[in-house]
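[Q] Does anyone have a clean structure-token version of this?
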Amino acid sequence: MRIAEKKQLQLGDLPISEIEIDFKSRDDIPAVLLGLQHVHSNQTIRENIFSILEDHCTTKISQSTGRQGMTLWNILVLAVLRVSLNIDYDRLQSLANDHKTIRNMLGHGGIFDSDHYYCLQTIRDNVMKIPADAMRDINVLIVQTGHDYVEHDANAPLHGRADSYVVETNVDYPTDVKLTVDALRSAIRIVVMLCGIFRLTSWREHKSMNKKVKKLARKVGKSKKSRPKSKQGKEEKEKAVQEAYQEFMSYALYCVDKIETFLTAIPTPDVVTDPMIAEIKMFRDFAKLQINQMYRRVIMEERIPNNEKIFSVFEEYTEWISKGKAGVKVEFGLKVCILEDQYRFVLYHRIMQDEEDSGIAIEFIEIAQKLFPNLRTCSFDKGFHNPKNQKKLAELLDMCVLPKKGKRNVEEKKREHQEEFIKARHQHSAVESAINALEAHGLNRCPDRGHERFYNYVALGVVGRNLHRLGCLIRAKAQEDAKKEAVRLRRAA
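[A] Here you go.
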């Protein structure tokens, strides 16, 4: 069972509520730490957060590793810092071991544990273990804490604004040649590992196979570089491109056949090798799919439908998204819809997979109202509009600010020319500031691999943003109080 935090202070330890954080600094670290400190100082909120973490997080450290575990509080602090500062594990390790204020926040200011050292693998094994469901529950508690701090009346309405943007996955620009190379080299790498386990010698040339695949891929790329203007030059160019593709596809099919022959020849799999064989088959299928699509596109001159394509061998859930933004033709990732209130806290978020804005609007508001029953108004952009949404959202909300696409009749014009509608519509653009803040604090591109970790990373980023916002409010109030005190002292002198 993982412990929540150190129960007993040791000699020299400083209570978290008494840690002095520099409120004059404009850096992100003090703002995040101020938010964490405020949440920890509220006993009810702290106990509820630990209860949520205990329900969702279990000890996953193997007894054979010999590494120390981490408390739930330490995991939360380091996870929030990693996403909010948009840093990698190496910098996070450096901060955890060398940053004085962060070490005090982790509970390592005393004499007996002043030399406590966080290993890189310990941080990797623990920090991203908090699932998205837990972070959503914790986010509700943090938002409630923020509302209490700004003295928001519990019965007063909340005014929301919703919009979506793209969180990119950690992938390169996908081409069928690149994806084929990724699939083949990944399959070959696992095949070589199985050869070592089963003591087989049939894949001694695996290095030369990888080199040849990459060499032929580069040849395809070079064949497409020049742009001849004459008709004859264009014909020769097209022929050279097709020949390069055919050579690449021919060798890729040879590698696929060799992989399939290996799969039929290996001994009976066991618990250890079963997952490895499944992974080889997955990468083999990806390679065959890309070779087939290459043949159809280059040789048969077909146009491949978007729903048949994959955009990453490793992050297969990645979508091709074109939102029509200036200077951004296409993005690779998943859309995330966020709901921000008038105090700039993110109340709720939803990751949209194979979904459009207009398809989630009703369910999005229904779930948000379950979490925050006082959500009474909300503004959207035109992408959320359809007749069903207009009708249902008008029933759920006291005021639904949802502009209609296209022509408007007299009644719709009258509705959109109301003073309250126009005011809320003007305020809606502030949600772009929230999106920019999320992107600046880690939610621009997810560095983690896997569908589940993508969801965890986004949920953690929302929590980190709300803690940062709470810390900024506390810092602003402390600076204002310091100015007032300086004025009072000058007058008294």
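[Q] Thanks! Anything notable?
[A] The chain has 17 helices and seven strands.
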